[in-house]
Amino acid sequence: MKFSYRLIGLMVFVVGACVTFMWWAKVQERTFATSRKAARERRIPVTIVVDMATRMSVTTRKPMHKKETPVMERISTAARKITLRQEMPVIEPDLQMQKKTSKFGFKVVSPRMNPLHTHDTLSSHKPSHKHLETKDVAGHGENVQHMHQCGSSFTLADANISTFQILHDIDYDLKWPPKAEESVTVHSRSAEITRGKNPLTIIVVPHSHNDPGWQKTVGEYFEDQTKHILDNMVEKLLQYPKMTFLWAETVFLSMWWKGLDSTKKASVKRLIERGQLEIVGGGWVVPDEANPHYFALIDQLIEGHHWLETELGVKPTNTWSLDPFGYSSTLPYLYKRAGFENMVILRVHTDLKEKLVTKKGLEFFWRQQWNKRGNRDMFTLMMPYKLYNIKHTCGPSQSVCLEFDFRNIEGEISEATSERIHSMNVDRKAKLLLSQYQKKADLFKHNVVLIPLGDDFRYDRSIEWDQQFRNYMMLFDHMNKKKEWNVHARFGTLKDYFREVEKVTKSKPDTFPSLVGDFFPYTDEKNEYWTGYFTTRPYDKYSGRELQMFLRAAELLQTLAAGRALSQDLYYPAFRHNTYSLSVGRQSLGLFQHHDAITGTSRSYVAENYENSLKTGLQQVHKVIKKAVRFLLSQSKSQPLKMNITIDSVRDQILHPSKEVQHVGHKGLDVVLFNALSMSRQEVISLVIDSDSVEVFDTQGQPVLSQINPVWLTKSRISHKEFELIFITRHLPALALHTYSIRHVEKPQLNHAAYIKSNFVDDIIPRNSRFTIRPFVGVVIMLENERYRATFHANTGYLSSLTAKPSHLRIPVNLQMLMYKARGSGAYIFQPTGPAVDTELLGKSTVRVVIGPVVSEVHVIQSVIDHRVRMVNSSDVCGAALHINNIVDLATMDNKELIMRITSPSIENGDKFFTDLNGFQMVKRQRFHNLPLEANYYPMTSLAYIEDAVTRLSLIGAQSLGVASLEKGSLEVMLDRRLQYDDGRGLGEGILDNKRTLSQFCLLLESRTNTVDVPKNAVPLPSQTAHLLTQQLQQPTLVLSLAHSASTSPSLALYEPMVNALPEDIILVNLRSCAAGGYHKLPQAVLVLHRVAFDCSFSKQPPRSLSGSVDLSTFRHVNPRFITHTTLSVTRDIRNVTLTQPVHLDVMEIYAYKLTF
After folding, report:
1. C-beta of residue 440 within 8 angstroms of C-beta of residue 79
2. What is the rounded distance in angstroms from the CA atom of residue 363 to the CA atom of residue 384?
3. Which residues are catalytic?
4. CA dihedral in degrees (967, 972, 978, 980; nearest 10)?
5. For residue range 1099-1112, what is the model confidence (pLDDT) as tens digits?
6. Which position has the higher pLDDT, 880 or 179?
7. CA dist list (Å): 580 to 563, 586, 629
């Protein structure tokens, strides 16, 4: 009985405890909900006005617009939720907000608890753009941020909005969706037309978006549509002086210009002078922003602007980028340095745009995360709706907008529902259209609204110009006559729009916010993320980077050769032809930066056209390199040496070694090595030769340690006629040409044959072969040099652990090849069925180990991939990482996406990782758990890393690909995609033209040596070693093989053009000759320099010579009469530079100098 009472008492106690706990949890939940609601109310003031009139459905039919999905636009919903007069956000005391004032007087808000929360508040700056164009643009010490040369005190800039934080909020809302009572529908006035005492200014901008390749090739588009658009443009703008037009793509202008007579050319210039025609952007193309390297972005900008200035006398000040699939924060910096004042963007993550809409934050000063002064801010307009066609630009109602697309071509299918404007309907139609303009204007903080009027390849018919102009002029005239409507509508340009905005906001000091961050990833529909194109057609992405590498080398060699000819009064006969060849190479590379070229998102035959263009450009720059090298190595004052030169391709040597065989013969073989970096380096050189009994001699005739590896014919058979020769150079000086000799010898002393182990041997090695192949035993494979000890699983051959010897840091590092199975993936979209698996790669792997005194390697051969890891036996930077080559062939797969995943569970990076943008800067990323895995993919142009307080693991790439960190301690990169189906974005086909593709990486493990000086809000930076490896991977030593008749002699041995190498933090981006076809000598050149910043917490000693000062006279034979600091595209002079004094470069900044000879 006592037991029963005790049991009952225990049960009562337990029940009471549970009730108490549930009550406490409910209190906590209410407290949390209240604080969260307050936080939401701080961001969105409550004003409830419901407008049902805008809830209209689209019933018209039309072939799907480019990259458009049939789902109703969501931004129009956000437009129906905007307040007419939004109050400034409330600063809550619990966030300990602190107002600060910048040097320009605008306000920024920074919370002490978490710097990222500052960017959700819209205290803002003055909109004037002219105040940013100060002497500070010139650099030279005026923009010094007092940063340590290593960036250890390089902290993030304050700004009002952070895209990183907005994505965090989007992820948070998915986990904790607002309750029904928290959801607020807000809208501005829909019936009123007036906007107070200031009239509503409407700028309607006719435009035509012309892709230089997508569903057709650039040539087909030009012949079929673009040349007709441009012809009509001249005729109709002259006929209609009140009409205007925008044009962006210089590549099409240059094609069209060649066929014009002088009268028509004069008319084009007159239209520009009258302000009817504005060239916006003006680069060779409108580039993609995820995949290009900043070298290529600058180069295509210079090419386009040089053409515009030469032919039209135009210097663009506004840029218009409506079609790229997301936006990099590198581009506004480059545009700012090129002299631009404003930019317009469109394709942004739908939820992110909605949050900006609700804050009236669609116009902002786009700030670099490292630029604390804000003097590199770019004023930016983000278009509020989904696309740039007429359906999505007049206002939130697509059906209403379709009533005002007046293009009506007999026999053409269209979803437009317009009717001709006449006196009987003009009042009704004007009111309807103006209501849309009003609603769009209410998304902004002023009374000026921009209305694009165009679409892909519009205005190709003469009658459309008449239809659009006459109908809109009737509407404008009617609106403008109605004084009570208080509106002024007209045609205009971007220049007109930004001029009006500045006029109406100049008296308001705090109009626009500042914003930091980029706009990746992009999604136009829920759970459909445009992250596949980061990787699509990797063969082409590698080809573009290869042309970039050779073009830069050709630019350097051409300028050095032309400079030597001038300084030594020599005849350089190749100058004129090389000028033409360089132009072809530049324009081929520039065309490939187009946002449907490098992205891999064109039709297959168009992609082939791009590949042919890249090959043509490569052939032309190879000619430049050969002729310049002959001239530079010759001492003759009349004719350069006659020698047969073969340029070795790294990719071809790896993919097709038997096609790259160099004949040694009894006279030997000479190779010229060109170090295209502005600092000295050691480099691993690989050549395929026809002899295994050779020695290598350097420029001074001294023997060099070398190694002979077999050339594999199959996974288990080797060639007995071709061999891979590997050696490490002595230190090659900056921009130097050094000649190395390969001589046939009977008994090599410093040449060693590799020792080979394999788990699959079926080849019979001849008795006279220098190779020995043995099966290996055991469960672990180990490679070792002075820096690392790496272990590999013997059964799979994949990496299992790394030990960094200097720090004795040993961590597990597991490398895997995995496959995603596509569910909705296409050229643009990445949408897998679930996590990546290895079932597609099951089966026994062939594993080989190649061991030698110069390099040691582990090879893994599976059904679709040949994976090779190389360890270099060197104390120089080339031995500081594992070098990874992947050869991928997905021809036998369908709807698969292959990744390489590297996992190190001991690295406590949480959900944070870091990727680069365009090879220019690093940005922090976060794995958002409530978003689909594809939403966590980002572009990696050259570098990504994960880290914790002690360890950093960096992956450096030679080409752009997609990257993610989907688990703690993991980093994965997508290698290739093969997809049967279209993803519904207008392309109309899958990706089935996969080629055997090479991808190259360096894997770098580092441990921090000093964490005291690294602030928590430090700007993410690569280590010094990662920076040097990136430079070497992007610009490998150029190998030119010479025929045996050109034997080594003192005059042929070397050429060293630099008195001193540049400091390690100064990158010689380009040394580009500027000359028209008629020049026989070099008139001008452009020198582009970039000063980078390092994270020195991974270095035992600070980097050497990082003063930021550069002596421009360090080039021996480049002796200009004048040096002028210019804008980045060399269209505007900033200041003259004293020849005898060094120039100072601020950290992270890029500078351009015009050298006049």
Report:
1. yes
2. 10
3. 323
4. 20
5. 766 555 577 889 98
6. 880
7. 18, 10, 17
Kind and range of the H or E element at 998? strand 997-1007
pLDDT over threshold 60, residue 847: yes
Q: Residue 50, Cα to own-chain centre: how many angstroms?
A: 42
- Residues 449-461 have a mean pLDDT of 97
Residue 16: its pLDDT value, please?
64
Q: Interior CA angle at 855 toward 851 and 856, to 5°?
A: 35
Residue 238, helix vs strand vs coil: helix
Q: Three-class SS of residue 133?
A: coil
The beta-strand segments (E) located in 195-269 are 200-209, 245-247
- Which residue would you say has higher pLDDT here, 1054 or 635? 1054
pTM: 0.88
Which of 650, 345, 662, 277 minimizes the C-alpha distance to 522?
A: 345
Angle of helix 426-441 relative to helix 462-481, nearest 10 degrees? 80
Largest CA distance in the chain: 121
* Three-state secondary structure call for residue 857: strand
Give tens-digit pLDDT for 960-972: 999 999 999 999 9
Give the tens place of pLDDT for each residue, 798-811: 999 999 887 788 89
Which helix H or strand E contains 254, and what residues bound it? helix 250-257
Rounded Cα distance, 931 and 919, in Å? 27
Least confident piece of the model among 1-5, 474-478, 993-997, 1096-1100: 1-5
What is the Cα–Cα distance from 1002 to 1014, expressed in whole angstroms?
Answer: 25
Residue-averaged pLDDT of the chain? 85
> Do 553 and 589 meet the contact criterion of CB atoms below 8 Å apart?
no
Q: Which two tokens stand for residue 153?
A: 């005190």
Q: Per-residue DSSP letters for 772-828?
A: EEEE--SSEEEEE-SSEEEEEETTT--EEEEEEGGGTEEEE-EEEEEEEEBSS--SS
Neighbours of 846 (CB within 10 A): 17
Torsion angle in degrees (nearest 10) through CA of 676, 682, 688, 689: 110
- The CA distance from 44 to 30, in Å, is 21
Provide the β-strand partners of residue 277: 245
| pLDDT tens digits, one per residue of 984-1027 | 999 999 999 999 999 999 999 999 887 666 778 899 999 999 99
DSSP state, residue 178: P
Q: Is the pLDDT of residue 148 over 80?
A: no
| Cα atoms in the 13 Å half-sphere on the side-chain side of 21 | 6
User: Half-sphere exposure of residue 723, counting CA atoms within 13 Å on the CB side?
Assistant: 22
- The number of beta carbons lying within 10 Å of the beta carbon of residue 33 is 15
Give per-residue pLDDT as tens, 623-668.
999 999 999 998 766 566 677 888 888 888 888 887 789 999 888 9
Interacting residues of 807 by C-beta distance below 8 A, sequence separation 6+ = 1007, 1009
928/924 Cα distance (integer angstroms)? 13
Q: How would DSSP label each residue in 643-684?
A: --EEEPPHHHHHH-GGGGEEP-TTT-EEEEEE--SSS-B--E
How does DSSP assign 27-63, residue by residue?
HHHHHHHHHHHHHHHHHS-------GGG--------P
Question: Model confidence over 226-265: pLDDT tens digits?
Answer: 999 999 999 999 999 999 999 999 999 999 999 999 999 9
Is the confidence at residue 54, as pLDDT, over 50? Answer: no
C-alpha to C-alpha distances, 656 to 612, 997, 1040, nearest whole angstrom:
19, 11, 18
Give the Cα separation of 540 and 555 in Å (integer).
Answer: 22
The residues near 656 (Cβ < 8 Å, ≥ 6 apart) are: none
pLDDT value at 195 more than 60: no
Of 635, 638, 652, 752, the closest CA to residue 705 belongs to 752
